[in-house]
Amino acid sequence: MLPEPEREKNQETLLFASGIPYKNGLRARHESYTLIANGSGGLPVHSGHPWTTCLTPIDSARMNAKASKTKRTTLIVVSTIALTLIAVLAVLNFTSGEKKIEHRIPRLYSTEDAQFLRTMGLLLGPAILDGNRFQSLLNGDQIFPAMLGAIRSARRTITFETYIYWSGGIGKEFADALAERARAGVKVHVLLDWVGSEKMEEAYLEEMQQAGVEIRRYHKPHWYNLTKLNNRTHRKLLIVDGKVGFTGGVGIADEWTGSGQDENHWRDTHFRAEGPVVGEMQAVFVDNWIETTGTVLHGDSYFPEPTPVGRSKGQMFMSSPTGGAESMHLMYLMALTGASRSIQLSMAYFVPDDLAVRTLVAALKRGVKIQIIMPGPKGDAAIVRRASRARWGDLLTAGAQLYEYQPTMYHCKVINVDDYLVSVGSTNFDNRSFSLNDEANLNIYDAAFAREQIEIFEKDLKHSHRFTLDEWKNRPLSEKIWEHTISLIGSQL
């Protein structure tokens, strides 16, 4: 083997003889050869690249180490930026950014006081309007025929906003009915939540769009709205010709069909409204339609002259993280604080925060009877059920009657206070509804109508299991640990 100086000289000679410039054993420019350093000097081999680097093993190792270090540094920088972005998006998605009610509201009057109505009207925003007529609709067998009948009778406009719209028989019926009315010249506007309508067949959308239905998906992910991914429209509204409105807990899916007869057919309540309050319902729909499309729907096709049709007082109001996030929370706290005799809650998801628990306990201590029905073992969200149970201790100790509905999923969202105020809509008794989602509720101030809801509630009680304080205390330790752990993220459930 040649000595090192001789090998380098030999290498240089070979390069020079080949017509390839050589300098310091580092770089050679040629068309089709690469030098490979070996024990007997450099030998030209075919390369195919116009530029190559001729390196000693030591030089090559140094450059590889430097390149590896550069890659690691780049990876660390990129990972740090990505994690920071994810953290910022998470914070923005899981907080409302609005001012929050933190202290229990002082009790200055009861629901029977005229001041209660004035306060509810002024603090919540929309006025309490007289001259309305309301009808309770129980389960799909009553709800869907009424809604589809109203759609098929439309002559001028239909506005429809919902969270759940899934594939299935009832989903196809709604798509067909909305498409038929659009072909007949009715202006049809449909607003679907992007997450809630994920299980909807594209064929339904295509059918409606081809017929002339104007459809939008609420907060479909785009680069410019990533901070709103956790803000969904949970509102459930159908308004026909600006004269008839529907709201409540129902979604457009086969689970809501039937009469709640088994675990595949859910128990729910929806309300039909006529009268001046329907204009407020329409205004709630237009709120999110503007946000989604930038278009204002107005005129007498959407807001006809209000005509009294009954004797009930009503009020439709909304909440959203982008404005008035605490309105729904405030409504519940005001109603609970004003209660004198009774509170009946039919609630699909009941995960009260500390303030709500304290408000309910205060009502119990002044003699208010509190009964709450929630989903039981056949509910659709076991994790929410566990988080709810973790917060029952103070309520049960103070005397609240807590029930779990047994036959099927219990999806109702109704509150009845003092057999006078009835509120129904999309709102659950949890932080997601109070702070993160877009929600809408219809408040009805009518003793006769409230008595009808008592009868419905008492029928549901017969199918419910009452959870006692002893039963709650004696549940297995594993359940207690699991429930307490889940309750720590209760604000996102």
Detail the topology: elements first, then pairings.
Blueprint: H1 4-17, E1 27-29, E2 33-38, E3 41-46, E4 51-53, H2 57-94, H3 114-124, E5 129-138, H4 139-152, E6 157-162, H5 169-183, E7 187-193, H6 202-211, E8 214-218, E9 237-240, E10 244-248, E11 269-274, H7 277-293, E12 312-319, H8 327-338, E13 342-347, H9 354-365, E14 369-375, H10 382-389, H11 393-398, E15 401-405, E16 413-417, E17 421-425, H12 431-436, E18 439-445, H13 447-461, E19 464-467, H14 469-473, H15 477-487
Parallel strand pairs: 6-7, 7-8, 13-14, 14-15
Antiparallel strand pairs: 1-4, 2-3, 5-11, 5-12, 6-9, 9-10, 10-11, 12-18, 13-16, 15-19, 16-17, 17-18
Please work out how many helical segments DSSP would assign.
15
Strand count, sense and closure of the main sheet?
Answer: 15 strands, mixed
Average of per-residue pLDDT values: 84
Under CATH at level 1, the class of the largest domain stands as Alpha Beta
Keywords:
493 residues; alpha+beta; Endonuclease, Chain A; 15-stranded mixed β-sheet; 19 strands; 39% helix; globular
